[in-house]
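We both want to read discrete structure tokens more fluently, so let's practise on a single case. Would you supply a protein for us yourself, any chain you care to pick? Would you write everything just below, so we can both look at the same thing?
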Amino acid sequence: MQTLQKWIAERPLTAFFGLAYLMTWLGSSLHYFSSVHAGKALPVVFNLPGALVWYYGPFLAAVMVSACMGGKARVLKLFDRIFTWRVDWRWYVFILLYPICLHLAVVGLDRWLGGPTPVFFQAAGVAKGNPWLVFLLLLVVQIFLRGIGEETGWRAFALPQLQSRMDSTRASLWLGVLWAGWHFHPANFATLLSPGGIFVFFNIVATTFLFTWVFNQTNRSLLIAILFHASLNMAEWIIPIGIADASLNRQIIHTVLLWAGVGILIFWRGQQLDKPGQAAIDRAEGLLLAETGCKIERG
């Protein structure tokens, strides 16, 4: 057991991504094969636990690897920034309005090219009903499942680790590819392996650069990352654009707008999407971990 713990502590990124993928695939498989559409190959009792393990795969992976790296203190440090809420008010405005503005732009350009008008306040898989009640319930689900379940792993754990070894742009690219690939698990096969899946992959990679910028500029607030993730997903219910099953025109418009924004961001900020001096802090933390026996893997 100690040998395994030491191996994980010395290779935190490899261990984290491996565990995140493993647990999500396990949970997703249990959920999928205990669902009606799969013919209930497994008892229905596995459906809810499977979904929770699926959504919380990155969370559980981050907690387990942090525990191996530094015990309870390291795990508590992982959650420190969930209480970082005192950030410039403009960041709250950005994370709330950016997704809506993006969706409006996609829909507007698509309509200009002859596309259909979307039906607002509905999305695939979301029950219909009183819009305010649906909004509140959906927001809670997005915060606690997608937000906390994913962002504790991707942003609170993986991103700082990556930024301790490389500049923010390359860290975002690596994280984006791995985060996008994580979505291609059994419960999502039907959607993501469709023609629209390739657009979903590249759009998630693009969005990762924005997450890095927001996370770093808000003093690495896990709370802001959680709310940003929830806001992005809520926008698909408020102004549906289809995501994976949209028309080709809408898919292209969405992808072009996302990557144009990333291009502007990188041109404006350069390779560092963080605050001045943060890269040096990251490198110092990496050296400290190495000196205490928790080396960050190189190459």
Summary: Confidence is low (pLDDT under 50) at residues 290-299. Residues 131-163 form the longest helix (33 residues).
